[in-house]
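Budget justification aside, the reviewers requested a transparent look at the raw inputs and outputs of the sequence design task funded under Objective 1. We therefore reproduce one unedited record. The lines immediately below are the structure tokens for a 123-residue chain.
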């Protein structure tokens, strides 16, 4: 049994979704294509990052260092592959698509992630 608690970074995806979903709904009143493009861009960032967080932080303790390192490599590999697959699927399957809204939302979710992690780790 370990006395070190797991970090709360798994909550970051929930914070991101709490911002993304209302923003996408608000954008519906302006332009439906922009709204779903922004939603997709945000999800393309959130889903792979959540995968990484689940993989990277499932182990704790000094005796599990090998498992921790392996899980982090697996998590990062999965994150990159998931991102590539989701971007590819979006560009191939979604038409019309507002590329500006897609990438803007993706970048904004990265910034929200950084801010959320800083806030969570500060506690």
């Amino acid at each position: 049994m370990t006395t070190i608690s797991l970090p709360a970074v798994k909550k970051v995806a929930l914070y991101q979704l709490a911002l993304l979903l209302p923003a996408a709904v608000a954008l519906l009143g302006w332009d439906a294509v922009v709204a779903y493009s922004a939603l997709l861009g945000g999800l393309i960032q959130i889903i792979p990052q959540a995968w990484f967080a689940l993989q990277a932080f499932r182990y704790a303790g000094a005796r599990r260092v090998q498992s921790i390192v392996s899980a982090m490599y697996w998590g990062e590999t999965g994150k990159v592959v998931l991102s590539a697959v989701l971007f590819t699927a979006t560009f191939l399957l979604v038409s019309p698509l507002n590329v500006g809204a897609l990438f803007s939302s993706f970048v904004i979710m990265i910034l929200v992630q950084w801010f959320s992690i800083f806030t969570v780790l500060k506690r």
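The CA atoms of residues 34 and 104 lie 11 Å apart. The chain is about 75% helix and 0% strand. Computational costs for records of this kind are itemized in the attached budget.
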